[in-house]
Amino acid sequence: MLLEVRDLYVEFHTREGVAKAVNGVNYSVAEGETLAVLGESGSGKSVTAQAVMGILDMPPGKIAGGEILFKGQDLLKAKPDERRKIRGQEMAMIFQDALSSLNPVLTVGQQLGEMFVVHRGMSRKDAKAKAIELMDRVRIPAAKERVNQYPHQFSGGMRQRIMIAMAMALEPSLIIADEPTTALDVTVQAQVMDLLAELQRELNMGLILITHDLGVVADVADKIAVMYAGRIVETAPVHEIYKAPAHPYTKGLLQSIPRLDQKGRELYAIQGLPPNLTRIPPGCAFNPRCPMAQDVCRSDVPPLYEVDEQRRSACHFWKETLDAR
Amino acid sequence: MHADRDKGAGTGGGAAGSTLLSQASEDAVAPYTEGDPILQVRGLAKHYPLTQGILFKRQIGAVRAVDGVDFDLYAGETLGIVGESGCGKSTVAKMLVHLERPTAGAIRYKGEDISKLSGRALKAVRRNIQMVFQDPYTSLNPRMTVGDIIGEPYEIHPEVAPKGSRRQKVQDLLDVVGLNPEYINRYPHQFSGGQRQRIGIARGLALNPEIIVADEPVSALDVSVQAQVVNLLDRLQAEFNLSFVFIAHDLSIVRHISDRVGVMYLGRIVEIGSDAEIYDHPTHPYTQALLSAVPVPDPTAREHRERIILHGDVPSPANIPSGCRFRTRCWKAQERCELEVPLLAVPAEFRHVDTPARHDSACHFAEEKRVVPPEGELEIPGPAEAPGDGETSEAEGDERS
Ligand SMILES: Nc1ncnc2c1ncn2[C@@H]1O[C@H](COP(=O)(O)OP(=O)(O)OP(=O)(O)O)[C@@H](O)[C@H]1O
Ligand SMILES: Nc1ncnc2c1ncn2[C@@H]1O[C@H](COP(=O)(O)OP(=O)(O)OP(=O)(O)O)[C@@H](O)[C@H]1O
Ligand code: SF4
Ligand code: SF4
Ligand SMILES: [Mg+2]
Ligand SMILES: [Mg+2]
């Protein structure tokens, strides 16, 4: 396994109390595989990714438990310089907002080239040639001229492609893309996702795609991890989960999306709101919103039950949920 | 609902668009009769001057944000407007509610052009057309209570609710949008995003308008909360016989909520028709590309779905291509597309046939192409048994923040 996150806990110490942002996350990605991490705002998707990358704000953040195994090595026990090296060369992250993650006063070419100067000890001249090559590869037209331009001179979709170029510059084995297309229009999103999938195939990278768009997931993922209140509530191969979800939250999400192929009747709406992370309900965190909740859900935290070899569901009634469709 | 579709948007058609500066000729007020569109938009344009120089500003061009938009809105219907970022959707919305003045064109409310009204006459019509904004986080004044926010329109239109009755009116409105009336003295930060959007909707309803212009009203919300608000809008429309102009970039939501849909590109509507005409029988290449790019929540669709990947970027509205404005990205473009502006009308080849392809489309080479899998082909868990209408949301609302 390329990356394995085991029972990860992250807390934030805030004025209002301890916010339990990540509460025992388990997921894994193999080489060449795409894992989609799905969940609503605040469910802990980004915080988990930041912990994996080693870029969590500490404090206020604190890793309160767990292991992050990268090629078998626990990153949480690695020395800082080792960690930095892995982060620079073996993993890369793409953020939602490309404009604010690019440096506005450096040209795109300088920023791309920097990677090769720092990590590969190349000369400026060679690095620039490499930058042009990369820009070509992510299909920036007229790369030779545009290599000297600044980020604000690029459109949103092009900036996101530059971010992709930067992430794959050193051919890492793992890329984490945190909502890489949320800020983009659908036609541009299609271009960017296409490119990402193609490069992933070519380099046989593991890809963790963080998103809240069930359509994007269906399009590109091999498997899914659904997060709710800092936990994985269901993981499964992509085909299975859409056909028959084994957790009431996943099921509710799938039913609540309006459809492109028919005009709507009333939408299913999951009642209520996600919990405040400083006061997560006892038992199953989803119980106040769950149509299937029983007494046991209010007292006992459901473990991640094994549905079959490849599927897990954190619901006491996963069987009933599967059958109820 | 609206007897004669053919009377619809196409008639005013591209003609208005291509002759921007010739004042909309039909300024004369035709008497409004039931069944006529409640709103008729013709040749609507907004150009922002581009200037250069600091001391002596001179105009060097214009951003043609909206560049000749035509559509009709009928009583009780929802017209969806979709299009990519920067195509001019919000600018159209702002002109409809008089937050921006059109550079050209007409907005006829029940037959009367309201775009040039001012003073008292304007105030009287404005009441009937209200707006709901996109961002529930920034569009509400953080220092005002919810009661003051929702009741604010009464300061300008005291005739709708005399002072003594306002508190009651506001509490009724809170109830209508599914919020606890006791929350009247709370501040916006004490509410979640979905609840804040309900507050915005309540405010939009305060003056009993006939038309609501909603600019991306659910875009900032999470999926589960989005469904609650969409259901609310659906219910309110039926209850108060509202007409909606519903603007969004999410094509699935627009289909869900709209009776008719207009697709915008670079300041113009390029195709308009009923929801089935646009989604199942699109004839404009841009609509086809747009629809094919929408990821559908069914992993089995990815193998057999055709994707039209558009190349290049949307041109700047300060520099719109000649002829067909889509031609720089269109895979079907030919010489004619560069020379001749395609008008928004029923394409000649469909004019005399009875087909869903017979709707307005601004393309010289319009042809039908289905890009959304037919209904029933997608494998998504069946329809919901127990629709939650979100009525309970405020009970847990306290939980957050
Ligand atoms: N630096 C921080 N300080 C305090 N709390 C934080 C910090 N970063 C994240 N959190 C909290 O951790 C929780 C999980 O946040 P996270 O960013 O992982 O959510 P997410 O699933 O990525 O949501 P979104 O879809 O909105 O990006 C949130 O409640 C957030 O407020
Ligand atoms: N006050 C202004 N001055 C100059 N240009 C403007 C102004 N307001 C809008 N524009 C430009 O007009 C065009 C249309 O903007 P508009 O906000 O209507 O787009 P939109 O379709 O609502 O986009 P989005 O989906 O991003 O909200 C854009 O190119 C925008 O930059
Ligand atoms: S454990 Fe109980 S409350 Fe939680 S999802 Fe399952 S049925 Fe619902
Ligand atoms: S008129 Fe020409 S360029 Fe425009 S959409 Fe039709 S085929 Fe394409
Ligand atoms: Mg996030
Ligand atoms: Mg807008």
From TrEMBL, chain A:
SUPFAM superfamilies to which the protein is assigned, alphabetical: P-loop containing nucleoside triphosphate hydrolases (SSF52540)
Record keywords, A-Z: ATP-binding, Cell membrane, Membrane, Nucleotide-binding, Transport
UniProt keyword annotation of Transcription present: no
Subcellular localization: Cell membrane
Membrane topology: Peripheral membrane protein
Record-given protein name: ABC transporter ATP-binding protein
Residue span, ABC transporter domain: 3-254
Domain of life: Bacteria
NCBIfam families: oligo_HPY
Similarity annotation: Belongs to the ABC transporter superfamily.
Coiled-coil intervals: none
Family annotation (InterPro entries): AAA+_ATPase, ABC_Ni/Peptide_Import, ABC_transporter-like_ATP-bd, ABC_transporter-like_CS, Oligopep_ABC_C, P-loop_NTPase
Gene Ontology MF term list: ATP binding
Native source organism of the sequence: Streptomyces rubiginosohelvolus
Automatic annotation (TrEMBL), chain B:
Annotated segments matching region Disordered: 367-401
Family recorded in the similarity comment: Belongs to the ABC transporter superfamily.
Coiled-coil regions listed in the entry: none
Keywords: ATP-binding, Nucleotide-binding, Transport
Transmembrane segments: none
PROSITE patterns for this protein: ABC_TRANSPORTER_1 (PS00211), ABC_TRANSPORTER_2 (PS50893)
Domain ABC transporter: 39-291
MF-aspect GO terms: ATP binding
Protein's name in the database: ABC transporter ATP-binding protein
Signal peptide: none
